[in-house]
């Protein structure tokens, strides 16, 4: 006898602590617009509506990068968000920036969550045991659904060391087949869902390498997939960032096989009425900070964003502030993806905290020309590796005071052809003083005379906007493909 049922899978990914509606960049041809999107109260309404439409048949998954990225998340080390995340009634989650305050703190957060935290690829170095469950089997829509979590593999490779203290992370590639087999045989699951924070390129390769994955819910790289990717028999979705979009799959499953698929990339716009219960929770978190965050610190004549891979206007401003504070011409920062854009016009304290929520000190270091080239070659490989599993960064490392000419298609270590400081070629043995923001800006293995300055990033940005009325045109760092 044929058995058929309807299952709804909803994805929330890379919200980065954005509890309230905020500007998001949307391209239309060559122009950027900044609609106000997102907000937990709107997301809660979407989930409530889906659950009313298909009662008992909705699976809600969060890819992580949830508890870090905004002022209330940072000052509470993610704890202020726990009641709100629990109110979403998630079915499972995996992680990345959740480790920002160290594994011990993250475990305390996990202990207060109402849903499982899954990571098949995270191991305790001392015992060799998994630090979190690999998977969970859930009853939904008359089906047994096996959900396997994969945390970000870069946590012990390119993130600050304290993120992964005592832990090691794999890709999960080698562990997946056995776990899929266990779920199918021992747990008698009908569908396998992989909840991943590896990134879209990595997940495409993963799906091509491992059989038996029905749905791969992908995060980390902030792709707005308007239709699922299909790799063999695996469907892959990813749904932007900052909670500005929510992904929804409506599946008809017949005799344990997906027979029909409908996908929506839902814009979390003002057309969605906020859920009043969640709005009260958001207000409780935000009210103590709203006056401070609303303070206007300056203006920007252009939109500031991080939506471009080789350079970004938001990081041009951050590096200009860092260079000013460090009294240098050269500056570096990590190629972060997160950070809601700032439309042309007033800039607030909230915008500054969104730009750099960790608020580290501005630091300086002495680097030789050889070290600068090696560091940038490493960043190019981590960004553009031909092997997706070798891509371990965000966007290209941001820099100021340099112009780099190179070929992205060249092999690792051979992409850069020329580097100039102003109009002079970078001298291999010369020492250059550089400012940087966070240890990811200039990794510990590079340079000498590292020094943290008595000024933090937010203060440097405040000072920059007090003094600057236009976007910096002098000294902008650019990688020029040739």
Strand order of the largest sheet: 9-10-12-13-15-14
Number of domains: 2
Largest sheet, strands/sense/barrel: 6 strands, mixed
CATH architectural grouping of the largest domain: 4-Layer Sandwich
Mean model confidence by pLDDT: 96
Q: Number of helical segments?
A: 12
Q: What gyration radius follows from the Cα positions, in whole Å? A: 23 Å
Under CATH, the topology of the largest domain can be stated as Purple Acid Phosphatase, chain A, domain 2
Topology, number of strands: 28
Roughly what percent helix?
Answer: 10-25%
Give the strand content. Answer: 25-35%
Low-pLDDT runs: none
Looking at the structure, what is the overall shape? Answer: globular
Content-based structural category: alpha/beta
CATH superfamily of the largest domain: Metallo-dependent phosphatases
Class of the largest domain in CATH? Alpha Beta
How many angstroms does the end-to-end distance come to?
Answer: 62 Å
Keywords: Hydrolase, Nucleotide-binding, Plasmid
GO molecular function, one term: hydrolase activity
Pfam family, one: 5_nucleotid_C
Protein name: Bifunctional metallophosphatase/5'-nucleotidase
Describe this protein's structure.
Keywords: Hydrolase, Nucleotide-binding, Plasmid. One of its GO terms (molecular function) is nucleotide binding. Belongs to the 5'-nucleotidase family. One of its GO terms (cellular component) is outer membrane-bounded periplasmic space. This is Bifunctional metallophosphatase/5'-nucleotidase. The protein is of the alpha/beta class. It has two domains: about 5-285, Metallo-dependent phosphatases (Purple Acid Phosphatase, chain A, domain 2, 4-Layer Sandwich), CATH 3.60.21.10; about 295-480, 5'-nucleotidase,  domain 2 (Alpha-Beta Complex), CATH 3.90.780.10. About 25% of the residues lie in helices and about 30% in strands. It is built from twelve helices and 28 strands. It has helices spanning about 40-55, 70-75, 80-85, 105-110, 175-185, 200-210, 275-285, 290-295, 315-325, 350-355, 370-385, 455-465, and strands at about 5-10, 20-25, 25-30, 30-35, 35, 60, 90-95, 120-125, 135-140, 145-150, 165-170, 190-195, 215-220, 230, 235, 245-255, 255-265, 295-300, 330-335, 345-350, 360-370, 400, 405, 415-420, 425, 430-435, 450-455, 480. Helix 9 packs across helix 12 (about 455-465). The radius of gyration is 23 Å and the shape is globular. The mean pLDDT is about 95.
